[in-house]
Amino acid sequence: MEEWKQKIIDRIYLFYPKNIIYGDPKYFESKEYIYYNKIKKTNTLSFEREKLYKELVAHFGSDKVDDFSLLMDTPSLVFKIYGPITDKRDIDWVLYISTLTNRYIVCKNINLVGSKKGWDTYILGTKSIGNDDKKVMNFVSNKIESILPDYEYLPSSFAKYKVSNIWTPTKEKGDVVVFDCLFTDNPW
Questions:
Q1: Most buried in the list 1, 26, 66, 104, measured by CB within 10 Å?
Q2: Residues of the chain below pLDDT 50
Q3: Dihedral, 120, 126, 129, 134 alpha carbons, nearest 10
Q4: Parallel, antiparallel, or unpaired for β 65-67 and 76-85?
Q5: Measured at the alpha carbon of residue 128, what is the angle toward residues 126 and 170, in degrees to the nearest 5?
């Protein structure tokens, strides 16, 4: 495994106890969980969050951006950018910025109108994306990296990498991936 990937995995294990089921009292008493909550509460990136929100609103419009960072119990800042709505589909992009490590990622949500399936969520990679996605990705990446210069985009292939021996609130051991640990285990 490449060194930068191993550093992220090692960092994840600082926050999530190994081999303890989420919900077990031992999980909530573990040094990892206590540390996770301490970092999550203190590392809110409040100045950067406000600055980025203002930049997103200035670019996309106040009716096209929401900041869900304080409403969601996740180890990340969460911004939603509303895309075009047509009679066939509804699209938006969700930006996650980890407060546990210096990584961020952008997801695209698509809801086909009239579909009973609901929303499909895709982690955007840097290849094979449409023009609207490229515009959002380029703008968002440039803004994040100017406001948080030590932050980098987490490649989508590594976001899907399985992290063994841990549970999250909604994922069981064997199903947990890097994305769940750094951003949220319940994307939307």
A1: 104
A2: 126-127
A3: 110
A4: antiparallel
A5: 65
151/3 Cα distance (integer angstroms): 17
- ∠ at Cα 27 (24, 31), nearest 5°? 160
CA distances 24 to 29, 30, 160, 180, Å, are: 9, 10, 26, 19
Looking at residue 146, its pLDDT comes to 95
In the structure encoding, which two tokens stand for residue 50, read together?
């406000």
Q: Would you state the torsion angle of the CA atoms of residues 131, 65, 139, 187, taken in this order, to the nearest 10 degrees?
A: -70
Q: What's the pTM value of the predicted model, to 2 decimals?
A: 0.88
- Alpha-carbon gap, residue 188 to 107, rounded angstroms: 9
Residue environment code for 102-115, b if the CB has 16+ CB neighbours within 10 A, otherwise e: ebbbbbbbeeeeee
